[in-house]
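Quiz preparation item.
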């Protein structure tokens, strides 16, 4: 196809590059096409290519491949798909993931999530029957926090930024998290689901806590008192629930996001679907774990 298009190339294509660079660019384009890409490329092709490269190659190699594809589009007068905002975001996340590499936290795989939440539910119901009021608030909070955290791929920052005013629950149907107050545009729609339904858990937590404004998941003292001025320690709470379930893995809130991405991947979700649900970092990280 390159030969067919060469007669409409723009003057910029004539700017000289070394023979070695031209050879490297040609090899990069061939690699792109061997991975299912076409020239001229679409943004979607570039995004999938970045995802594939980030599982195996260094970020310098990824950058070189992008430069090669950019040069071809620029030279032939096509719009450059490597310069879109979504591709820049993907490259930024790919660079971060390549940098942290093996130091990333492990994903919270679904079977471990299920065990953690099922164990927690059993302990919670025992506390209800024994009327352990000082423990119940924290238990209901953690149930809501981690069911929402897993199914929406939320990290600690996402969970701690939520305000009660942003949440609208329709029992047995779903929950909407608004971008600002409830009169503004919806940010996330979360349906009722099984197992470990985040809608049911959130409804229980807000009912038991009596919260009507402020931080959704505030800190709770050891005496069971809510402190509306402080956010909860998400990672510490997750470690306690993990230990309670007798799982010897050091999960963090990032494990929730990558764990959901892994579950979605195993359920047949495409890379772009995962990306749209939880963001670039866990989607790319999921592919690294899969390889």
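Solution:
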């Amino acid at each position: 196809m390159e030969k067919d298009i060469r007669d409409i190339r723009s003057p910029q294509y004539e700017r000289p590059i070394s023979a070695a660079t031209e050879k490297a660019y040609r090899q990069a384009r061939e690699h792109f096409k061997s991975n299912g890409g076409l020239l001229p490329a679409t943004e979607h092709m570039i995004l999938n290519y970045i995802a594939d490269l980030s599982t195996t190659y260094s970020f310098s190699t990824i950058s070189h491949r992008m430069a090669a594809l950019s040069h071809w589009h620029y030279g032939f007068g096509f719009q450059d798909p490597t310069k879109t905002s979504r591709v820049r975001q993907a490259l930024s996340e790919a660079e971060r993931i390549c940098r942290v590499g093996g130091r990333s936290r492990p994903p919270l795989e679904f079977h471990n999530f299920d065990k953690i939440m099922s164990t927690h539910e059993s302990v919670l119901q025992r506390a209800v029957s024994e009327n352990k009021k000082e423990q119940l608030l924290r238990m209901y909070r953690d149930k809501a926090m981690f069911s929402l955290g897993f199914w929406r791929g939320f990290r600690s920052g996402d969970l701690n930024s939520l305000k009660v005013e942003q949440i609208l629950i329709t029992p047995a149907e779903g929950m909407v998290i608004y971008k600002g107050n409830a009169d503004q545009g919806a940010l996330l729609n979360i349906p009722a689901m099984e197992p470990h339904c985040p809608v049911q858990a959130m409804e229980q937590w807000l009912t038991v806590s009596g919260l009507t404004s402020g931080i959704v998941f505030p800190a709770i003292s050891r005496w069971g008192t809510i402190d509306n001025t402080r956010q909860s320690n998400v990672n510490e709470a997750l470690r306690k629930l993990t230990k309670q379930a007798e799982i010897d893995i050091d999960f963090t809130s990032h494990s929730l996001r990558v764990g959901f991405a892994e579950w979605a991947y195993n359920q047949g979700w495409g890379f772009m679907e995962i990306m749209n649900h939880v963001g670039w970092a866990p989607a790319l990280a999921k592919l690294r774990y899969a390889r």
